[in-house]
Amino acid sequence: MTVRALITVPPAIRPGEVIEIRTLIAHPMEAGHRSDGQGGVVPRRILRRFTCRLDGQPVFSAELHAAVAANPLIAFPLRVQASGTLECRWEGDDGFAHTQTAALRVA
Amino acid sequence: MRGRRSTALEHEGAMGMPRRPRSGPLNGPLHGPLNGLLKRLMALAGLLSVVSAATAAGPSAFSMMSPQLQAMQRDDSLNPGMLWVLDGQARWSRAEGAVGKACADCHGTTPAERLRGVAAAYPAWDAASGQPVNLGERIAACRSRHQGVREPSAPDALLALEAAVAHASRGLPMAPPDDTRLQPWRARGQALWQQRIGQLDLSCAQCHDERVGRRLGGSLIPPGHAAGYPTYRLEWQALGSLQRRIRNCNTGVRAEPWLPGSDEMRALEVYMAWRERGLPVEAPAVRP
Q1: For chain B, which end, N or C, has fewer CB atoms within 10 Å of the first or last residue's CB respectively?
Q2: Phi and psi of A37, rounded to 5°?
Q3: Contact between chains at B82 and A24 (C-beta distance less than 8 A)
């Protein structure tokens, strides 16, 4: 299945303004403790790391653990001086990786 | 004092639900006058509920949710249901099935272009199958007839498309069709709504008409509106259909769940849409 993710940034930003970046991604965040009904355990499948870069420069990163709910929302403040490209990357178990970009327009 | 207490025990279950009036040794002369009073009160409550049903569908479930949940639903950047809407909108223009046609080839470039308001008018009568169908079933039928897609091979795709089409009607009032062929289904749905089922011996109406706003355990009892479906439930950590929610209620009262696509589900959905006509479509709603 294709990965679904949403990055929300304000449409217009003033130079030096602190804005909120919001990201949502569809992910089951299977904690690895659930019974599969056959005597086994559903293997863990969670996101481990979230990183965000602005024009290649890391601006935010987070480590995720088993207690995070499915489809995690990650939001963080960011001071922006000039227009640029925000690149968000989610990495997880089973080689999961998804990269998505959003344009920041400073007027 | 003793008499009053025993009456309360007789008429209220563990969760404060009045039981069916009994005949037998418990219904002795001591309880007679109190029973009469109770009956009069219940008749009054019944009258009040009829009056409220006649004027409007009552407060929407949305207005009863916590401020945090309301904010989550209102803001598309916080609403996880939008992940499914997004997926559905992407699938809208993707050619699928044996025929290789996309939804967009017939219905416009986005669901909002030509299908705005459609979701508010379902369930509707389907002449081909001779029964009412809900929005999801209608989309599945369209996909199998015109795209050659065999559902339920792709339930995720169907739910995503349903979410996208329902989202296109957001804010519009529920307008179930005034179709005489739906009349018997609506009547049957209403009867099912009021019928006690399961080991807990509860009807839909006892919670979702008579005890709206009160609590069942720690959970708020909502009015049981369908206008927000498909809905993102925090309990499911996923988007789900109305039928899935009804199945939850079925097992909640320890009844055998109605099967998906069964006549019971169909009739109940027809009645529920009619019951809340005029309420705005909220899909995808967020619920606890």
Answers
A1: N
A2: 80, 0
A3: yes
| Residue B284: cis peptide before it, omega within 30 degrees of 0 | yes
> Rounded to the nearest 10 degrees, how much is the dihedral formed by the CA atoms of A88, A29, B166, B278?
-120
Catalytic choice (B103, B106, B142, B249): B249
pTM (2 decimals)?
A: 0.81
DSSP assignment of B156-198, as one string? HHHHHHHHHHHHTTTTSBP-----GGGHHHHHHHHHHHHS-BT
What is the average pLDDT score of chain A? 94
What is chain B's mean pLDDT, rounded? Answer: 83
Q: What is the ipTM of this complex?
A: 0.89
Q: Do A4 and B237 touch (CB under 8 A)?
A: no
Structure tokens at A13: 């930003």
Q: What are phi and psi of A101, to 5 degrees?
A: -120, 155
**pLDDT tens digits along B18-57:** 444 433 333 334 444 445 544 554 454 444 443 333 334 6
Q: With an 8 Å Cβ cutoff, are A8 and B77 in contact? A: yes
Q: Return the pLDDT at B57.
A: 60
* Closest Cβ opposite residue A6 in set B77, B90, B238: B77
Between A and B, how many residue pairs show a Cβ–Cβ distance under 8 A? 38
Q: Which residue of A has its CA nearest to B86?
A: A4
